[in-house]
Amino acid sequence: MKNVFFIWLFFICSFSSFAQFNHQLSVQTGIYNNQVSIFTSLEGAASYEHQNSFSLGIGYQYNFNNRLSLKSSINWQSSQLTSNNISSTGSQIQQDIALATLNIPILVSYNFNRFFFIDAGPVIHFETENEPENYIDSQNGIGFSLGAGIQYSFSGFSLFAKPNLQILSVLAVAAENHHDKLFSAGFVFGLGYNF
């Protein structure tokens, strides 16, 4: 019984070890390096080269306590890719692709201390652009995001930066055999207002 009390006391102390606000509104931007994956090696399938990608968004965070938070945001992500393929005559075909999605991550975040955190969770996403039409499989569905970063709070505001990994269409709407999945690795930066 004494051990249970000390474990409980340890968790209470760790959750209340630094000051916090309950809510945060933020603006954020990200830069990414993208790849298209199908998790299967297909002979004759197109390969994709990253050109550029960025995101813009607004976010909300609810702090349950000093350690645990729930984060969500609405992010518009634009990606430019080049597809390399071989035609039936053996000539190489290159195609520029413009892909844009509206991503809504729902992340659980854990703060190790005042400065370092990790977050992870599902990403609901909707395709807003896929030109030329459906060159890459539709990117509507549910994906996954994982990030770890640093934050610094001052005078009711917070700056944060994190490396982020994200994969879209893990569960795709209208999935096809060997469905294309957009994998993004990059950095997200933001400024939040705490209240």
Number of helices: 1
What structural class do you assign from the helix and strand content?
A: mainly beta
Rg of Cα set: 20 Å
Order of helices and strands: HEEEEEEEE
Q: What fraction of residues sit in β-strands? A: over 45%
Given as residue ranges, the uncertain stretches (5+ residues, pLDDT < 50) are 11-19
For the biggest β-sheet, the strand order reads 1-2-3-4-5-6-7-8
Proportion in helices: under 10%
Count of β-strands = 8
Rounded average pLDDT = 87
Query: How would the global form be characterised?
Result: elongated
Oligomer: single chain
Give the N-to-C terminal Cα separation: 39 Å
Biggest sheet details: 8 strands, antiparallel, barrel
Please, could you describe this protein's structure?
- With 195 residues, this protein is mainly beta.
- The chain is 7% helix and 67% strand.
- It has 1 helix and 8 strands; from the N terminus they run H-E-E-E-E-E-E-E-E.
- The protein has an 8-stranded antiparallel barrel with strand order 1-2-3-4-5-6-7-8.
- Strand 6 and strand 7 form a beta hairpin.
Summarize the SSE layout with pairings:
Layout: H1 2-15, E1 23-37, E2 47-63, E3 68-86, E4 92-111, E5 116-131, E6 141-154, E7 157-172, E8 181-194
Antiparallel strand pairs: 1-2, 1-8, 2-3, 3-4, 4-5, 5-6, 6-7, 7-8
